[in-house]
Design goal:
It is built from twelve helices and 13 strands. With 364 residues, the chain is an alpha/beta fold. It has a seven-stranded parallel sheet with strand order 3-2-1-4-5-6-11, with helices on both faces. Strands 7-10 form a two-stranded parallel ribbon. Helix 2 packs across helix 3 and helix 10 packs across helix 12.
Length: 364
């Protein structure tokens, strides 16, 4: 068994939560071989540590191969995973990597244009290529490999802007990204990639599952990028003030990462072929209220107060920016549910960073 202290950085209670809520799904994964793309990011670290935890405790003797663009960067960012006996690594671009010769039972495709590239406003054509051409290439690999089951991690961005008249987006909503808006390449790329999944499923008789992911919170969420809740947590950890750069009227919802991973494993093993499932929280909150909630929880945990500064001014003519999923389909068909409240999710995330070594959080 792997050394818990050396291998696992996520809270043990979270890893156990994932194990308990997916235990019965792994019956066909004994000695299975997984191929995972996107293993270096926020979703990736949770997928990998939960895989290791479950693999050991259920004695699955399974293996996972991780595709990474830069092995040295991965090793520097996640050194605790390098010596895990059930993980292997392949270096290459998602669009052109050399296909491994071994057989893979399951493929999880989470690789996309990086959050850093979006934050730095890098070339949208390149970002679109990574999403679209990368998905096409990994689908070709899955067909070549005759993979048993394929999970595509898509995004709620495929719906485009949420109309004010709709409280939550369900899978039947036929909206689409506006090609003239900034960052449209993400929604467009994911939407066309879902179409490719359907094409390859029919053409090669592949079992492909699709998860449309919304917004999340938890350990390893990058705090210095464009994620509001991450920025607020960072601001509090650094002594404040918490800065809301907008008027704070946008409405979001946040699912804790351990629940996200339960949903993703469940969709992989139980989801219907090419029938997308929304993944996220149905609990809405304005960005302004979120900032004050983060400040409140930080004070509860540390006894320290931080100010909240809202820099933007509200306008009654402004259309409310809302991005909330309906998850009734996943709840009804797959028996999934969200059990953690937003307050609990924020508290657990704070506790992770507060227990980490000094300045650790600034490097994520």
């Amino acid at each position: 068994m792997e050394n818990i202290k050396n291998i696992y950085t996520l809270p043990i209670e979270d890893l156990n939560y994932i194990l308990i809520n997916t235990k019965d799904l792994w019956v066909n994964a004994y000695k299975a071989n997984f191929f995972i793309t996107g293993g270096t990011g926020f979703f990736g670290i949770w997928m990998l540590e939960s895989f290791l935890w479950i693999n050991e405790r259920l004695n699955l003797n399974a293996q996972a191969t991780i595709l990474t663009r830069n092995y040295e960067a991965f090793k520097q960012k996640h050194p605790h995973l390098i010596n895990a006996l059930s993980l292997k690594y392949v270096t290459g671009d998602i669009r052109s990597f050399v296909y491994p010769k071994e057989k893979f039972d399951f493929i999880i495709h989470g690789a996309s244009a990086s959050a850093e590239s979006k934050f730095l406003c890098e070339d949208p054509e390149e970002r679109l290529s990574i999403i679209l051409d990368g998905t096409r290439n990994i689908l070709r690999f899955a067909a070549y490999n005759n993979t048993k089951s394929f999970l595509y991690i898509s995004s709620g961005a495929v719906y485009g802007k949420q109309p004010p008249s709709i409280s939550s987006l369900d899978e039947q909503y036929n909206g689409s990204p506006n090609i003239n808006e900034a960052n449209a390449e993400v929604g467009i790329g994911k939407k066309v990639s879902e179409f490719l999944c359907t094409v390859y499923s029919k053409k090669h008789n592949m079992d492909i599952k699709i998860a449309r992911c919304f917004t999340f919170i938890g350990p390893y969420l990058q705090l210095n990028l464009h994620y509001a809740v991450g920025n607020f947590i960072r601001d509090a950890l650094m002594g404040g003030p918490i800065i809301v750069k907008s008027d704070g009227s946008a409405v979001r919802s946040y699912m804790y990462a351990s629940e996200l991973i339960v949903w993703l494993w469940t969709i992989l093993f139980k989801g219907k072929n090419c029938d997308p499932y929304n993944v996220g929280s149905e609990e809405p909150i304005t960005i302004k209220d979120l900032a004050f909630k983060v400040a409140e929880i930080y004070k509860e945990l540390t006894g320290k107060s931080v100010d909240v500064i809202v820099q933007g001014k509200a306008s009654p003519e402004k259309r409310v920016d809302r991005y909330i999923p309906s998850t009734k389909k996943a709840q009804t068909e797959l028996g999934l549910k969200q059990t953690l409240t937003l307050e609990e999710a924020i508290k657990k995330t704070f506790l992770f960073y507060l227990s980490a070594q000094k300045n650790f959080y600034t490097n994520l």
